Amino acid sequence: MKLPDFAGNTLAAALKAAPLDALENRMLLCHALRLTRVQLITQSERQLDAAEAALLTQLYERRLHGEPIAYIVGAREFYGLVFKVTPAVLIPRPDTELLVELALERLPQQGSLLDMGTGSGAIAVAVAHTRPDASVTALDASADALAVARDNAASNQARVNFVLSDWYAALATSNANAQAPARFDLIASNPPYIVAGDPHLSQGDLRFEPVDALTDHQDGLSDLRTIIAGAGNHLHSGGWLLMEHGYDQAAPVRALLNAAGFTEVQSWRDLAGIERVSGGRLV
């Protein structure tokens, strides 16, 4: 697609000529010119100079090539908060807000929560921001992801303890010399669950996201199995395990939870009516 020459255009004319939908056009123009949405409106007759036009063209070329707009502008809103995102982490999605809501409903006062595979920190930061009384720990096997998550905790004034860990590996079975508490009132996770070779991995935004955060490179259930198998050693009695999973994985995840001895096993549907989160309670 041939892009218009934005040089000399007013902001209003640039918005009208731009090739994306209205929302993305506004986002890219605001990002390129470092304007708020209100400033974009109040300065609608301002003309773009050559440097601004060149930057805007570069951003549109990236988007038309398929790069997610969240990576281009470096941010995404989640649970009413703004999160920094980079190609080191998955882009937070509205579906995952269901997991946050379910965790908040089940987390007791002064309770403790472990977010496994935190990525951008979206789950942990959203919970810690909403419930400052809670003790929130977040782990990830990627140091680059943890750096992004730490920035998001700081920018959203959320108190979170971050741990570099391959699932439970860095968590002790007792509190002695542990980087984090051994047991929690609730474990939440949005792990890699896309089956290896799934065609979606080479389509849309997923092409640009970290593949190890998307797929377990196996049947899509191996990381969920690991989380379920280890949860008994890291939950208090009566604690909840809640996990996001794929659109067709609810039944097998419930079976795994039942086999591991969890009670009150169930699945919850997202806004599209898809069983998106499953969980159970430790006896």
Explained architecture:
It is a single chain. With 283 residues, the chain is α/β, with parallel strands linked by helices. It has 2 domains: 11-65, no CATH class; 89-281, Rossmann fold. Helix content is 34%, strand content 19%. The protein has a 7-stranded mixed sheet, sandwiched between helices. Strands 1-2 form a two-stranded antiparallel ribbon. Helix 7 links the parallel strand 3 (112-116) and strand 4. Helix 2 crosses helix 4 (50-64).
Radius of gyration: 21 Å
- The side-by-side strand order for the widest beta sheet comes to 5-4-3-6-7-9-8
Question: What is the CA-CA span between the terminal residues?
Answer: 59 Å
**Mean pLDDT level:** 94
In N-to-C order, the SSE pattern is HHHHHEEHEHEHEEHEHEE
Percent of residues in beta strands? 15-25%
CATH superfamily of the largest domain: Vaccinia Virus protein VP39
Number of strands: 9
Number of helical segments? 10
What is the number of domains? Answer: 2
CATH architecture of the largest domain: 3-Layer(aba) Sandwich
Task: Determine the structural class based on helices, strands and strand pairing.
Answer: alpha/beta
Domain Release factor glutamine methyltransferase N-terminal: 12-74
Function: Methylates the class 1 translation termination release factors RF1/PrfA and RF2/PrfB on the glutamine residue of the universally conserved GGQ motif.
EC number: 2.1.1.297
Pfam family, one: MTS
Topology readout:
Layout (H helix, E strand, L loop, with lengths): L10 H7 L4 H12 L3 H6 L7 H15 L4 H5 L1 E4 L2 E4 L12 H10 L5 E5 L5 H9 L4 E6 L2 H13 L4 E5 L19 E6 L32 H10 L3 E10 L5 H10 L3 E7 L5 E7 L2
Parallel strand pairs: 3-4, 3-6, 4-5, 6-7
Antiparallel strand pairs: 1-2, 7-9, 8-9
Helix pairs in contact: 2-4, 6-7
